[in-house]
Amino acid sequence: MSASTTSKAPVADPKNGNGEAVPEKKPAASLEEDDEFEDFPIEDWSEEETQIPGGNTHLWEESWDDDDTNEDFAVQLREELKKLGQK
Amino acid sequence: MPAFQAGLESTFCNEVNLALRNRDANKLQSILVLEPPFQPIYQQLIDSLKNKFPENDPKAEKRLEDVVRRMVTETGESEDEEGRPVASWGQMVSFLVGWMAFIRDINLENLLETYERLSDLQQKANSALQHPTKGILILPTLIRYAKVFSRVAIGLDKRPELIQHLVANSITEDGRRESLPEKAANIVRQSFITCLNDRNTAPRGIKDGKPDGKKVGIYKMANICLKILFQADKLESCQTIFNNIYNSSPPLSIYPASERVTYLYYLGRYHFASTNFFEAQLALQKAYDDTPTNPACMSQRRLILIYLIAANLLLGRFPSAAIYTFPEAHGLRARFEPITRAIRKGDLESFRRITNLDLSDEHAAWFSHYRMFYQIGNYCEVYVWRSVFRKVFLLTGQQGVTERSAPTIDLHAVLLAFQYFERRAHMTPAMAQQDAGPGRRHITFVLQDFMPQGYVDPDFEGLDVTPYIKTPDILEMESICGSLIMQGFLNGFISHKSKRFAITGARKAGNALKAGFPNIWEVISKRKSQDVPGWRKEALSEAAGGGVIRLAGARPAGS
Questions:
Q1: Mean pLDDT across chain B, nearest whole number?
Q2: I need a surface site. Which of B350, B443, B464, B520 has the fewest CB within 10 A?
């Protein structure tokens, strides 16, 4: 799925993982792409089966501002900003 | 015709009749198989049909119909237990005849013909479903068929050479060409509507906490329609389904987990594509939370997670390190982290490279494939702006000369930063690196050599088009600053005269950074409701104590 060349052509020929046409055993199933949301193998399940080890409380980072003014990026920008008032 | 002449056909009809009499819908489904390879008994039936009711005999179907009508007595008029008349079920007769003709004639070599025959059979099943009391018996069969039908439709859509003539001839009322998947989805949609509008159910379609009557099929049918439309990239056609469900479905929470999760995935993606990222995030988070961690469900978890991360990113919320450690998140850090890094730092140059319309970035094709490239480019840019302002404030901002004067940022300083980034973004990475080296003071020399190319879409190739080269000026800085203030991402005002942005509320907040640069996620989530169009949650009166709707993902503690 990481190969950007194969993921770019949603209307291209149907093919399997090897990029070859698949024999017509199951005509349509073979035409699926990797971004298809497949049917679940089971119909129903309990809430316990969905628990992530460690819970799902720290999945997202809301405060991510970067205060670092000493790393390269900030140092370069500071240099650039010294032009202020020099014009 | 004497019964012995239609021996095997009669046997099958008998079996069907028995299943109907026992109201055993699953048994009926198991009899009415659709796909090869057929078991020997079906092969015998097919041979018998070919022999006695051949396709080329114009009267064959009429004769078959007579057999079905005579043997499947459950399709006749009758009375229910309380003596009320039950209408005859002629559509079921047509459907059964259609089924026999289908297995007699099926030729998988010919995908188009298979599609057309399936389409015909699907419509006959739709009609049979409409019987007020008995229709429900065909529901499992119909769902099974609709899945096969959708696979064939999706498959055909990817073989344009086979369907050109079909598409060319189908123009909708508003003059638009209707694609084959849309036609297929419309056929499946009929049974979805029949399920949704079933009046022969307990009040509100709920019995013992479960969907009653044909309403049990609402989300199964909807999900099949949505799958077809999504695979064919016809998201705009999904709106009606979501509206219908929102307006008249029993709550989603009483349906099996697989149906809920699948539906919320499509709903989330639909909202994502419609730029309703908050609604998308709510639906996708619930879908993700409710998907089993079982490795067998890895592909579903991964797809949901990809869109969930993107939706959060677009709301100013970044994936934590923990997410990237999940097995389904394999490889996602390399995709998303360059973007979050650029936003954090205010690195507009890197952001421009990542979102360059020529798809030159190594991950651009991937984002484009998942249909999130333009959203990220357009909407996250605003967050980069905010970070540029913030970084410039950190590097040059004035805290306010007296205790009473506000901290300010010189918009000319912000302009310098923007110009610096935009200029570098037009260079090749090698050139930009050189520009940052020891010789970077000689910027005039670099600029002499450097002419930005700009982007011209391939659609305009050969035309005399001058690409737009972005060169920010002070007016644009005021405009961007104003836009950030309006969106709530900067807190303060612009002094047009001195070309400065002044932060308000710094003393109250304790520091200028906190006061001037509100948290993006907090700003957005505060003004959004938890309501998601298309997501039929529990009715308020029933929700008390239900506890099925978990909003943990929407607003974690401490935010």
A1: 88
A2: B464
DSSP 3-state of B219 = helix
pTM metric for this prediction: 0.85
pLDDT, tens digit (0-9, with 9 covering 90-100), for A33-47: 467 899 999 999 998
At how many degrees (to 10) do helices B7-21 and B60-71 cross?
Answer: 40
Residue B21 predicted with pLDDT over 50 = yes
Does B557 contact A57 at a Cβ distance shorter than 8 Å?
A: yes
On whether any CB of chain B is under 8 Å from the CB of A70, the answer is no
- Alpha-carbon dihedral of residues A10, B378, B348, B521, nearest 10 degrees? -110
> Collapsing DSSP states into helix, strand and coil, what is residue B206?
strand
Mean pLDDT is lowest, of A59-68, B121-130, B341-350, B448-457, for B448-457
Closest residue in B to A59 (Cα) is B320
Strands (E), B159-243: 206-207, 210-211
B469-499 pLDDT, tens digit each: 768 999 999 999 999 999 999 999 999 999 9
Q: What is the pLDDT of residues B169-179, one digit of tens each?
A: 666 666 667 78
Neighbours of B478 (CB within 10 A): 18
CB-CB under 8 Å, B416 with A7? no
- Phi and psi torsions of B276, nearest 5°: -90, 75
Q: Which amino acid is at B418?
A: F
Nearest-neighbour CA in chain B from A21: distance (Å): 12
Say which residues have a Cβ less than 8 Å from residue B343's Cβ, sequence separation at least 6.
A64, B318, B351, B380, B383, B384, B387
Q: Is A23 on the interface with B (CB under 8 A)?
A: no
Residue A84 banded pLDDT, cuts 50, 70, 90: confident
Residue-by-residue DSSP string for B429-443: HHHHHHHTSGGGG-H
Q: Which residues of B74-112 are buried (b: 16+ CB within 10 A; e: fewer)?
A: bbeeeeeeeeeeeebbebbbbbbbbbbbbbbebeeeebe
Distance in Å from the first CA to the final CA of chain A: 51
Question: Is A44–B396 a contact, with Cβ atoms under 8 angstroms apart?
Answer: no
Q: Which residues pair with B495 in a beta bridge?
A: B500
Residues of A in contact with B114 (CB under 8 A): 27
Domains, chain B: 8-78+85-259 (no CATH), 389-433+469-526 (1.10.10.10)
- Quote the CA–CA distance of B218 and B262 in Å, as a whole number: 13
- By C-alpha distance, the chain A residue nearest B294 is A49
Pick from B498, B503, B528, B502: nearest CA to B514: B503
